[in-house]
Design brief:
This protein has 196 residues and is an all-alpha fold. Helix content is 49%, strand content 0%. The chain contains 6 helices and no strands. The longest helix has 31 residues.
Amino acid sequence: MKFDRRKLYLPNDDGGTDGGADGAGAGGGAGAGGGDDTKTGGAGNAGGSDKSSKRDPLYADLPDDHPLVKAHQRLKDDNKVLKPKAKLVDDAEEAKKTDGQKIADLQSKLDAQPAAVAGALREHLVALHEFDAEDVETFLTGNTPELLLKQSARLLDLRGGGKRQNHVSKEGTKLSRPKPNSTTEFIKSFTNRDGQ
């Protein structure tokens, strides 16, 4: 077999990436590209066809007859057939349930709500107050939001980081009268007042 440079993938002088002389595209597969600059043959797919855009982008570089592409397409087709059947089965099972069973299912879903909220609240409280992991295991064991809030408040009190007190030492205290000195005595005698 003789080496023919024209059949290799080489970019054109104008910067296009057409396939080689036999239509071999960028992937070197037996693509049907070549000719004009907008369509390239590549990876064995029909060059310029829109079929590859309808396929899963994961398999865009594989030829249509690749086993992975075929298996993926077969599974998608099976899913299209099986989804309505599965819905029919689910609807039939739901219809078979008695009112008591339906109420029990709804009650179990309702009972699971506080535990889910408490889990999210626990994570939030740990992040907010920066509790230690050991303290969280020991003190924050509640499975309802109300109990968890009480436990976290108690843990904050134990830690000393509970309610902040805005205390100003001299706020609200009456100042005593200043001790009399010569200036205040002079003003008092001059104005006949108490020196206030």
